[in-house]
Specification:
5-stranded mixed beta sheet, D-Maltodextrin-Binding Protein, domain 2, metal-binding, 22% strand, binds magnesium ion, 2 domains, 7 helices, FBPase_class-1, binds 2,5-anhydro-1,6-di-O-phosphono-D-mannitol, Fructose_bisphosphatase_AS, cytoplasm
Length: 342
């Protein structure tokens, strides 16, 4: 692998493509389109506060949340770059109720893209890092144009997944199945340059990330697990440190580099999030693919996220993701304490 600082993301995409002799460059171009959108969104995020882009649009999205102006900007930027690229047949975005089918006059391509254009956007006004998450599947429907089925595929069938984090620097982290690689945007040359080749997540961490304000709503298994992490045990590194930003991309990125576990479990019934908060297609599945390729694991508490069958675009799932041994240990608590009543 060449040295840091001179290896552009485009060269890296092309190198990865060489391991697929059948590839014709369309896939590399699609990744380049996403990187371009990331640079444009990064520019706008960095100006927030100076220009009139902070605050709400006044609309409510399909998730029932208020749409921030920057959410809207990120969503429109991605759509307008991808829908006329000729490389995409279907687009699913957290901000749009319906999937976007690429129709004439635009050419329909061979890939379906799911995305969360600006994750963590409730943090924008206070200058906390936010991010764009994306996931790419191959078109599987037979017709000339895409169908929703092209988006509703398991995480295991992803061809690529990644995120762009708009933090103290802007980074793009992606995998096409062959390692997880991180690139830092050098704003002086406008290029993502290789900074974190072949990221591996430690098998075990000593950090947990969860919104503990939801404690009352957790299952017995989750309550016991978090209590266990706070108990003293020098051998296994407990008590763990707590770090929760409330921006999935940021919490995930930290744990990917240093190890740890992120949890967004479901609420017990009668509370507002019986299926968790995070969306399977736009948030959980891409993060699950990335962490899997880096040696970690993602679970809904019982099953690998990569094996969950999506039934609808905006489906939610509990998400527990991070260091392999930590997530497996959480599953053991769930198996022990959350046995379903017969
Ligand atoms: P969003 O896609 O509307 O921004 O919501 C997702 C965000 C994640 O980034 C984060 O992990 C989670 O919501 C935080 O939720 P909470 O504020 O309930 O802890
Ligand atoms: Mg989100």
């Amino acid at each position: 692998m060449p040295g840091k600082g001179t290896w552009t993301i485009e060269r890296h995409f092309m190198l990865q493509e060489k391991s697929h002799p059948e590839a014709k460059g369309e896939f590399t171009q699609l990744l380049m389109d996403i990187a371009l959108a990331g640079k444009i969104i990064s520019r706008e995020v960095n100006k927030a506060g100076l220009v009139e882009i902070l605050g709400l649009t006044g609309e409510i999205n399909i998730q029932g949340e208020q749409v921030q102006k920057l959410d809207d900007f990120a969503n429109k930027t991605l759509i307008s770059i991808l829908d006329r690229s000729g490389r995409v047949c279907m687009l699913g975005t957290e901000e749009n109720t319906e999937a976007i089918k690429i129709l004439p006059p635009y050419t329909s391509g061979h890939y379906a893209v799911s995305m969360d254009p600006l994750d963590g956007s409730s943090n924008i006004d206070v200058n906390v890092s936010v991010g764009t998450i994306f996931s790419i599947h191959r078109k599987v429907s037979k017709g000339p144009r895409g169908e929703e089925a092209d988006l509703l595929q398991t995480g295991r069938k992803q061809l690529a997944a990644g995120y762009i984090i708009y933090g103290s620097s802007t980074m793009m982290v992606y995998t096409t199945g062959n390692g997880v690689h991180g690139f830092t945007l050098d704003p002086s040359v406008g290029e993502f340059l290789l900074s974190h080749p072949d990221i591996r997540i430690p098998k075990r961490g000593n950090t947990y990330s969860v919104n503990e304000g939801n404690y009352l709503f957790w299952s017995e298994g989750t309550k016991r697990y978090i209590k266990y992490l706070k108990e003293m045990d020098n051998q296994s590194g407990r008590p763990y440190t707590s770090r929760y930003i409330g921006s999935l991309v940021s919490d995930f990125h930290r744990n990917l580099l240093h190890g740890g576990i992120f949890l967004y479990p479901s609420d017990q019934k009668d509370h507002k999030r019986p299926h968790g908060k995070l969306r399977l297609l736009y948030e959980a599945a891409p993060m699950a693919y990335i962490v899997d390729r880096a040696g970690g694991y993602a679970s809904d508490g019982k099953k690998n996220i990569l094996d969950l069958e999506p039934k609808e675009l905006h489906q939610r799932t509990p998400l527990i993701v991070g260091s392999y041994e930590d997530v497996k240990e959480y599953e053991e608590f769930i198996a022990e304490y959350d046995k379903e009543k017969k």
